[in-house]
Amino acid sequence: MSPIVLIAMPADHDRVRNVVGALTESDLDIYWERTGPESPRWKQATVRVLEARATVFFWSAAAQGPAGARYRALARRALAAGKAICVRLESAPIPPKLAGWTTYDLRGWRARASSLFMLDIVAGVKAKAAGLDPPLPRAPRQLLMRRIAIAVPSGVAAIALLVGLYRDVGIDRIASTREATDWARIRPGSCSDVRAFLAAHSEGVHAAEAQALLSSRTQRVETRWEATERPASLYISGMGETGAASRAAAERATFDRAVGEAERRCRFLADAASLRYVSGTPRNVRYMCEAADSGIVCDLHGEAACRIREPNEVIVETCGSR
How is 124-143 classified by DSSP, letter by letter? Predict the structure, then answer.
């Protein structure tokens, strides 16, 4: 089975090196993928990432910039496969398409393997590698409570701890008007709505519930018949036809026959490729006319515009209902 893979933009490797060392001390089976998006070996790196039990992506300004396009695309694929978690190195915004992953904040980390920040990441990686939902980060709240206990007198600290407990229970957690409105607008089963909600309210009252909806999503392959158009060559001969009194009349008669021939050719094209026929019409036609014993006859050269529907398999994901 593939190990746990850590991957970051090359510009962040110096900072990531300390994280790799700390995770190694935690007895995790990790592999540090040092290949960058611009490397000719990026395809092999992509395979290693997608075959891993879990993948840790490091987020920074470098990952957000133009050079990180392929890095972000790989992150989306790993997230869709349920294997990715995010470690934030700095305050670079996370795009909505990646809002569904669990994010661990290392901006306050001091490079100690036993710190609360690193213990959060270790717990998240172990859960993800086991196919479980990673726990939400605890370090920021615990550090806040420690600072309160140190900074204020013991009586006030006790009150602050009670307030923290009060909030943990959720009694005073009331969503803002905007969050409540956005939460109510999430369509049943819509993963895109849930991701958009998390992008706007990652620290909101309903954030944990939204994360749970994403974690319970299912995927299915659906065939959709999409309209398209294909050309087919079209030729109508005037030989053997009764001539017309004028060129205009001869062209109209030839075009009328071209309409039927275009439909016939387009139906044949659709049937031969197991597609669905919609219509066939002549276009880009030109005439070559000449006088015959019975009058004027015309040849027609052009193409048939074949409007058909062809099957396209798409992956449809559905998130749990609220």
Answer: HHHHHHTTSPPPPP-HHHHH
Distance (Å, whole) CA 208 – CA 195: 12
Bridge partners of residue 231, in order along the sequence: 305
Strand order across the 103-105 sheet:
30-33, 4-7, 55-59, 84-88, 103-105
Cα(244)–Cα(258) distance, rounded to whole angstroms?
16
How far apart are alpha carbons 288 and 168 in whole angstroms? 85
- Identify the domain containing residue 263 by its residue range: 223-314
Same domain, 25 and 121: yes
Residue 184 lies in a domain: no
Whole-angstrom distance, CA of residue 282 vs CA of residue 302: 7
- In this structure, is residue 199 part of a structural domain? no
Identify whether residues 132 and 247 lie together within a single domain: no
User: What residues form DSSP beta bridges with 308?
Assistant: 228, 277
What is the domain count for the chain?
Answer: 2
Last residue of a domain, one of 114, 136, 158: 136
- 153 to 117, 147, 149, 162, 163: CA distances (angstroms): 26, 11, 8, 14, 15
31 within a domain of the structure (yes/no): yes
pLDDT for the residue numbered 283: 95
Residues 119 and 243 reside in one and the same domain: no
Q: What angle do CA 36, 37, 39 make, to 5 degrees?
A: 65
Report if pTM > 0.70: no
Q: How many CB atoms lie within 10 A of CB 311?
A: 11
Alpha-carbon gap, residue 74 to 82, rounded angstroms: 13
Q: Are residues 6 and 131 in the same domain?
A: yes
pLDDT in tens, 137-187: 664 444 444 444 445 455 555 545 544 544 544 444 567 888 888 888 888
d(CA 292, CA 42): 69
Note whether residue 34 is domain-resident: yes
Contacts of 223 (CB under 8 A, 6+ apart): 311, 312, 313
Given 136, 171, 194, which residue is the final one in a domain? Answer: 136
